[in-house]
Design brief:
The protein is an alpha+beta fold and about 325 residues long. It has helices at about 5-30, 45-65, 85-95, 105-110, 135-140, 225-235, 245-255, 275-285, 320-330, and strands at about 35-40, 45, 70, 125-130, 145-150, 155-165, 175-180, 185-190, 195-200, 215, 240, 260, 290, 310-315. β10, α6 (about 225-235) and β11 (about 240) form a beta-alpha-beta unit. It holds the Pfam family Inositol_P.
Length: about 325
């Protein structure tokens, strides 16, 4: 694919994710936990979620006004008298990341541009304004995740990870990384402090005994006891690397760990497309394979969720098949899928 393919979308996505990441950092310095709303799925959503979505949606609209957006948030909790206090804070913070200030009405309209239903045809952006809200609240890992999907295929992915160390071997060193990918053009890391992009690739280990795996901090996001059984079956003895958000995709893409397991915790739960779109492309461009627990590719054409997939498994192409075999043996010991 020509390096010019999706060049404009790539540049705009970088700008949007950087601006939103900076707004999130400003919010964190002012955050009061009492201002957190609780969503139906019990995960906290903060002022930063709304501010980041407003910033990204506004920047996307300026360059691609006809592109729909599948975003995580809507504005209903910001409306009316009950939403006034938070609405005013969100407006103030969102405008610190934008060249042209929004009004209260345009703020709500901008946030609600993210309510597209998704689908199999045409262009759409998938946005998670803060992936890993609990990590954000702890001052640990979270990510601003943006992807362009065209006819059900992820074509561009940009993730901002403000708290991720630039070098995993130096956890106390510089933090703040962008991860950038376009289908067919490779995977790259750019530090917040630089405009230089460095190619990244997954660790091509020779033996699974040398591997480590990434999983969620929250046990409610992935079945950690089953993960331990899978690791044992594969001969993996290293302790798992646990972190919130799509930073896990970023970490394995640059070789910090080799396998990402997100095992189902509920038969009825459907993964959201914004939680995996940009990360799955990054891993694929870094030499990996991302599938569900049955080895099926993730299908981003079914709406706002990965309705036909269960769980997520990401690993280097050389070992992905063996990881899937182990997952099947542990999750389906009787051979029943």
């Amino acid at each position: 694919m020509s390096a010019l393919a999706f060049a404009a979308e790539r540049a705009v996505a970088i700008n949007a994710v950087l601006a939103a990441s900076n707004v999130c950092q400003r919010v964190f310095t002012k955050l009061v936990n009492g201002e957190t709303i609780t969503k139906k799925d019990k995960s906290p959503v903060t002022i930063a979620d709304y501010s980041a979505q407003a910033v990204v949606n506004s920047i996307l609209y300026k360059s691609f006004p006809t592109d729909p957006i599948v975003g995580e948030e809507d504005s209903k909790d910001l409306r009316g008298e009950e939403g006034r206090s938070m609405r005013e804070k969100v407006l103030e913070l969102a405008n610190t990341g934008l060249e042209s200030a929004l009004s209260e009405d345009s703020l709500l309209e901008t946030i609600d541009r993210g309510t597209f239903a998704g689908g199999a045809k045409g262009r759409m952006w998938a946005l998670d304004p803060i992936d890993g809200t609990k990590g954000f609240l702890r001052g640990e890992q979270f990510a601003v995740c943006l992807a362009l999907i065209v006819d059900g295929q992820v074509q561009v992915g940009v993730m901002g990870c403000p708290n991720l160390p630039v070098d995993a071997k130096n956890k106390d060193g510089e933090k703040g990384c962008l991860f950038i990918t376009v289908k067919g053009q490779g995977a790259f890391q750019r530090n917040f402090s630089s405009n230089t992009e460095t190619p990244i690739a997954m660790s091509a280990i020779q033996s699974l005994a040398d591997a480590s795996f990434c999983e969620s901090v929250e046990s409610g996001h992935s079945n950690q006891s089953e993960s331990a059984k899978i690791a044992n079956l594969l001969g993996i003895t290293k302790a798992p690397v646990r972190m919130d958000s799509q930073c896990k995709y970023c970490s394995i893409s640059r070789g910090d760990a080799e396998v990402y397991l997100r095992l189902p915790v509920s038969a009825s739960y459907e993964e959201k497309i914004w939680d995996h779109a940009s990360g799955s492309l990054l891993v694929a461009e870094a030499g990996g394979i991302v599938s569900d627990i049955h080895g099926k590719p993730l299908d981003f054409s079914k709406g706002r969720t990965l309705a036909t997939n269960s769980g997520v498994i990401a690993a280097h192409a050389k070992i992905h098949g063996r990881v899937i075999e182990a997952v099947q043996k542990v999750l389906f010991p009787e051979g029943k899928l």
